[in-house]
């Protein structure tokens, strides 16, 4: 069941969204060659808790960290560790803040020093694909219009869209209905309505869209070892269009 959010719930989600966005803004200077992904996780946890909010991913279904740190061929859900970031790496940092029972979720990607032209294009295309999906998230459209817009654009640029991991409704639960696919035909699924809140979070690969899972049961990688990246926003649907509550400055 899709739960439409009240004005009060949306206001709390916006507060959480501002903290998540602020953390990503701060990470722009923090992410650099020589630091570990575990240091990034500690940075995220400290930032969120400083605002009296909870890093909601920590403990979710047993996940032990405040953030996911996905480097190079890791599609999503990468475990923070002692891995040291190297010049030329790309990394996605995914976090969720919980504020008075309401969630906000955003993943953002970062270049570590100077990166290859292919990696630069991957970041640019994936971020643009996110906004292609947001553009069609308007009252009266259908949920599958989002995935169709994303897939059409990404494939026109020569990359592929991951099928195994998708966007989702969000509010009092981290994951709610509806499911938001980043691929597929248009004009299917639920109609988009005022008060809906959901994430759009395309994961885009340089090679095949197929993924494999590490033995930890969380870390997803590209099956062919190619680079992957992700961008994600939480948005709320209004009569005037989608409002991005995790928008950065």
UniProtKB/TrEMBL annotation:
| Enzyme kind, highest EC tier | hydrolase
Which InterPro entries does this chain map to?
Creatinase/aminopeptidase-like, Pept_M24, Pept_M24_MAP, Pept_M24A_MAP1
Per its record, the protein catalyses: Release of N-terminal amino acids, preferentially methionine, from peptides and arylamides
Positions contributing to a divalent metal cation 1 binding: 94, 105, 232
Q: Name one Pfam family in it.
A: Peptidase_M24
Q: How does it assemble?
A: Monomer.
What family classification does the UniProt entry report for this protein?
Belongs to the peptidase M24A family. Methionine aminopeptidase type 1 subfamily.
Q: What is this protein called?
A: Methionine aminopeptidase
